[in-house]
Amino acid sequence: MTGYGKAVDDTGVKKLTVEIRSLNSKQLDINTKLPWIYKEKEIEIRNTISQKLGRGKIDLSITYDIIDEEHLPAINKSAVINYLKQIEKLNIELGITSDPTSMLQIVMRLPDTVKSEKTELSEEEWIIVRQLINEAIEALDRYRIEEGKALENDIRSSTAKIVRYLDEIIPFEKGRTDKVREKIESALNDINGTISIDRNRLEQELIYYLEKFDINEEKVRLKKHCDYFLETLSINEPNGKTLSFIVQEMGREINTIGSKANDASIQKLVVMMKEELEKIKEQTLNAL
């Protein structure tokens, strides 16, 4: 969702600039910085942004430089002279020596030193500004698309690694159950001389115990989640929230595999899958 767009136009009277930035956010958060003349259009501007950008932390600013000298604000000479006389009188009373240039700089910051007649926003100017806003949004959208392509490649790569690590678990599964069986039987053989053991009941309990370590269902579900994730990723519409939900399900299956693993080699692959899943989580935050 990160991006930047800018549009500029020269009307002959003003040089107008519209800039818009977007950052990651779960909701739509719009912040506008507008000259007073465009404040009346703020609601329309916000509606345009929400319709075209969906969500994200959006900062939009509109600035202008006046080119036509006739439209520049005029200095209020009488106010400036009055301020200077008052400051000069105050300096004499306080025995302060001031530089005239610095005094003038101070005065020009005071109220009413510049005459600026407030003009109404014309329909012609608003049409230009609205067009610039749309152009800036389109530029930001293009930026998002390019970034999205790079993110998609990274996400697909991480998902493919998870599937590959899942396949690498297979060779360790049979050996894992055999080790558990051998460990239990060895322990039972050590105490065989002191208690009698029902071998049939032992086999039943052993099967039940080993079933608790079976991870086949979790592997199947994780593979399906990965396939669904990639399928959703290919849809050409906003689906960031759906992707986040699928990632949560992928994480749940990976955690269950890790808790059932009881094998160092499988645990290592689980850690590697978690590492790739964290990358996917971070990247899906950028998806609309």
Could you explain the architecture of this structure?
- Among the domains are: 3-70 and 124-142, Ribosomal Protein S5, domain 2, CATH 3.30.230; 74-115, no CATH class; 177-214, no CATH class.
- It is built from nine helices and six strands; from the N terminus they run βββαββααβαααααα.
- Helix 1 runs parallel beside helix 4 (123-168) and helix 7 (216-233) packs antiparallel against helix 8.
- The termini are close together.
- The strands form two sheets. The chain has a four-stranded mixed β-sheet. The protein has a two-stranded antiparallel sheet with strand order 5-6.
- It is of the alpha+beta class and 288 residues long.
- Helix content is 62%, strand content 14%.
Element order: H for helix, E for strand? EEEHEEHHEHHHHHH
Global Rg: 35 Å
Shape: elongated
Tell me the distance between the termini: 6 Å
Q: What is the CATH domain class of the domain at 3-70 and 124-142?
A: Alpha Beta
Give the helix/strand layout.
Blueprint (H helix, E strand, L loop, with lengths): L2 E8 L3 E10 L4 E6 L8 H12 L2 E11 L7 E2 L1 H18 L5 H8 L6 E2 L7 H46 L1 H21 L8 H13 L4 H18 L6 H22 L2 H21 L4
Parallel strand pairs: 3-4
Antiparallel strand pairs: 1-2, 2-4, 5-6
Helix pairs in contact: 1-4, 4-7, 4-9, 7-8, 8-9
Short characterization:
The protein has 288 residues and is of the alpha+beta class. 62% of the residues lie in helices and 14% in strands.
